[in-house]
Amino acid sequence: MTFSRTISAPPEKVWRSLTDVARYPALLTKVDATELLHHQTFGPGTSWRETRRPYGWPVTVDLRVTDCRPPFRYVVECFAGGHSVTEYRLVPCDGGRGTNLQLTYTLTGGSLIHRINRILARRRILACIRENNVQDLLDIDRACGATA
């Protein structure tokens, strides 16, 4: 699934919001808590524990950056019932004054029970993924505009 939003801020500013993992609970409506699992500059190997409430109850996963090309792209992976990969792309627009933020999410594998549940609850899961990612894009847009 791919989501995108044009943000009226340059890529460097959007990048700072996206990579400020410690501030996610304050920036992202759907994030309840984060815990950095390292003390390094954001890049490959950066990892954190994140808690969200996708279905009304808390779900905590460990995320890790597997590819990073500041300030235009990074990839985060985790195990969320299957192998979850989220790619963030920041494409300059409006002469560099704006950013088209693109988010691509994939989920593969997992246990047989989890794969069966994904098939049976496909509509609900897709709605949840859509809701969380669209809200994250709105929140990043708001955060970048609030500090303009």
What does this structure look like?
This protein is α+β, with helices and mostly antiparallel strands and 148 residues long. It has 4 helices and 7 strands, in the order βααββββββαα. A 7-stranded antiparallel sheet has the order 1-7-6-5-4-3-2. It is globular.
The global form is globular
**What is the count of structural domains?**
1
Instruction: Classify the secondary structure makeup into a structural class.
Output: alpha+beta
Task: Output the number of helix runs.
Answer: 4
CATH class: Alpha Beta
SSE topology sketch:
Elements: E1 2-7, H1 11-18, H2 24-27, E2 31-36, E3 47-52, E4 59-69, E5 73-79, E6 83-93, E7 98-108, H3 112-120, H4 122-146
List keywords for this structure.
single chain, 148 residues, alpha+beta, Alpha-D-Glucose-1,6-Bisphosphate, Chain A, domain 4, seven-stranded antiparallel sheet, 4 helices, 7 strands, 31% helix, globular
Short description:
It contains 4 helices and 7 strands; from the N terminus they run βααββββββαα. The protein has 148 residues and is of the alpha+beta class. It has a single domain (2-146), classed as Alpha-D-Glucose-1,6-Bisphosphate, Chain A, domain 4, CATH 3.30.530.
